[in-house]
From TrEMBL:
Belongs to the pannexin family. It is a multi-pass membrane protein. The keyword Transmembrane helix applies. This is Innexin. Keywords: Cell junction, Cell membrane, Gap junction, Ion channel, Ion transport, Membrane, Transmembrane, Transmembrane helix, Transport. It comes from Larinioides sclopetarius. It holds the Pfam family Innexin. One of its GO terms (biological process) is monoatomic ion transmembrane transport. The lineage of its organism: Eukaryota, Metazoa, Ecdysozoa, Arthropoda, Chelicerata. The chain crosses the membrane at residues 108-130, 175-197, 271-295.
């Protein structure tokens, strides 16, 4: 059984090679851990506790009624939420039902565990795709090159290997950047789409759920309706039909307590705020991505901010020759190598580009002189 958790330990361990950014990691690592943790917590609460308890005064077996109400869902009356508890109604959303009155059924608690697990898979999908596309490119380029244990000659050799790769692959990394940008767009659409799906699941009450909870805490205690009770009611109704002794259909109304919703409401308050913050950060990262793609000066500025000891002239030479995808690889390298080493890489890269430019000019001049 311990082998089951060994893979999870590998998943949460600290990565020492970074081929993405902090916001990307919030999606596939932090959010996945949160959702899987909530899945386990709710699963334990349902299987080792009483997720539903029903009150009735009829001759119906308790376990039969509770099993039926859990499977077929319970309901509340939206019109009863605004009535005075203890005066007009016994509990929020609980009142005598009249024909034609709107019912709000609550069947989501049967699916929350599966939904959370599926959400975790959707958040992890970009990481899986990116690992396939990256194929340890950044890890191989930065492997040991920033390690202080290497001798100076070894460092110089590693540096020249890296520079040769960068020079020989100028313009080959645009698709690499395109895939990563598309995955960042997926991250934003995924979190927004999941907020929308949860809103549908919770009866169009989840979009402003977090804001409503904050407003609720500042309202007068005597004149307020808890939004968490509207989305996750703790007391609901259930209708059960049986045959009487004469063969007539008999209707049984039951009040059902949902202890599981006390946990659900707390977890989903956290999820609402986490997803909203995550969406805002993802949108900001996309703005950053498009600015760096469309504005070359921004790319130089970013590298200077990441490694402020760079020689501006060397950096200008490099940025003049490379494409935006090549810059993205350099940007990832700044997260994995020593800044002094990166400065030397840019210096050697610039010198190589200058030498190639001189040779090209010399060759062109000789060709011109050789003309008849």
């Amino acid at each position: 059984m311990l082998d089951v958790f060994s893979d999870f330990d590998e998943y949460i361990e600290i990565d020492y090679t970074y081929n993405d950014n902090n916001v990307f990691r919030l999606h596939y690592k932090a959010t996945v851990i949160i959702l899987l943790g909530f899945t386990v917590l709710l699963g334990c609460s349902q299987h080792f506790g009483d997720p539903i308890n029903c009150i009735h005064g009829e001759d119906v077996p308790q376990n039969v009624l509770e099993t039926y109400c859990w499977i077929h869902s319970t309901f509340t009356l939206p019109a009863a939420y605004d009535k005075r508890v203890g005066i007009d109604v016994a509990h929020p959303g609980i009142d005598k039902h009249t024909p034609g009155e709107t019912k709000r059924y609550h069947a989501y608690y049967q699916w929350i565990i599966f939904l959370l697990f599926f959400q975790a898979l959707l958040f992890y999908a970009p990481r899986y795709i990116w690992e396939v596309v990256d194929d340890e490119k950044i890890k191989n380029l930065s492997m040991e090159v920033g390690c202080g244990a290497l001798q100076p000659d070894d460092k110089a050799e590693c540096r020249m290997i890296l520079v040769d790769y960068l020079k020989s692959h100028i313009g080959d990394h645009n698709v690499y950047l395109l895939v990563f940008t598309l995955l960042e767009m997926y991250n934003l659409l995924n979190v927004l789409g999941q907020l929308y799906i949860m809103d549908l699941l919770f009866g169009r009450e989840f979009t402003s759920f977090g804001i409503d909870v904050l407003k609720f805490t500042n309202m007068d205690q005597e004149n307020r309706t808890d939004p968490m009770i509207k989305v996750f009611p703790r007391m609901t109704k259930c209708t059960f039909h049986t045959f009487g002794s004469s063969g007539d259909v008999q209707k049984h109304d039951a009040l059902c307590i949902l202890p599981i919703n006390v946990l659900n409401e707390k977890l989903y308050v956290f999820i609402w705020f986490w997803f909203v913050v995550l969406a805002a950060l993802s949108a900001g990262m996309l703005v950053f991505r498009f600015v760096t793609i469309l504005w070359p000066a921004a790319r130089s500025f970013v590298l200077m901010q990441k490694c402020d000891i760079l020689d501006k002239n060397d950096l200008q030479v490099v940025m003049k020759h490379i494409k935006v995808g090549d810059w993205f690889v350099l940007h990832l390298l700044t997260k994995n190598v020593d800044f002094f080493y990166f400065k030397e890489v840019i210096r050697d890269f610039a010198n190589e580009l200058k030498e190639d430019a001189k040779l090209n000019r010399k060759g062109s001049l000789e060709d011109y002189k050789a003309l008849p």
